[in-house]
Amino acid sequence: MLISIIKRINYKVSKGRFFHEMAATNNKPFTVFVEGNIGSGKTTFLEHFRRFEDITLLTEPVEEWRNLGGWNLLDLMYKDPAKWAMTFQAYVSLTMLDMHRRPTATPVKLMERSIYSARYCFVEHMKNNGTIHPAQFAVLDEWFRFIHHHIPIEADLIVYLKTTPSIVHERIKKRARSEEQCVPLSYIEDLHKLHEDWLINRTHAECPAPVLVIDADLDLSQITEEYKKSEHQILRKAVDVVMNSPNKLSPKKPISTTPIKIVPQFRL
């Protein structure tokens, strides 16, 4: 199966499809990566912005991971990570790259997770935990480096939904995805630390954009207000892009909330 995935990537790169798509457009959307732990509320956050006409929402391609030629790679990975983790992450890289390169008709794009979190959080955890062999990690890392250096993937802002591991672990139990019922708290804690080291402490890896931190521990009745605050930071920077678009669409409701502090951009 891994050979089939690699062939698909090779075909697309050899045809220059990704490079051609980048060269064909001069109008790059204002791009926001929505990052956070499992159960941090990323999908809910994206849904909050569905009321804006100028924003394209791209959610994680979970259904593709659940059905690749009839195979549920997500389920296989959770049940037998030693056997399936590399295959799963190779396919995650492919599907996330496809999302990054997908043409966007609107001037603003919000994307659930990114190829960066796939590498810096999930693959890194697999390496640290011994889930994948060092040789397997080397292959995944080389793929990431190739993509990072040769295929432009740009971000203008990262929204980090910061959560407490014990809280999101309870959410995971309640939402009852069959594949996630075996996820232990220790896994959530490890992912939390990797997100913190990447996006807050900046001790682990490159952060490709400024970071907007939102307290995502709040319950649904409170979190909506935090999402409204984030509209200011996201759309304040995007407003020029929006107003310069050919359609000149605007948000259906005005932005009147106070800004949330952005962590300054820093590159290692």
TrEMBL record:
Pfam families: dNK (PF01712). Transmembrane segments: none annotated. Gene3D superfamilies: P-loop containing nucleotide triphosphate hydrolases. Belongs to the DCK/DGK family. Signal peptide: none annotated. Residues 33-233 form the Deoxynucleoside kinase domain. The lineage of its organism: Eukaryota, Metazoa, Ecdysozoa, Arthropoda, Hexapoda. It comes from the Eukaryota. This is Deoxynucleoside kinase domain-containing protein.
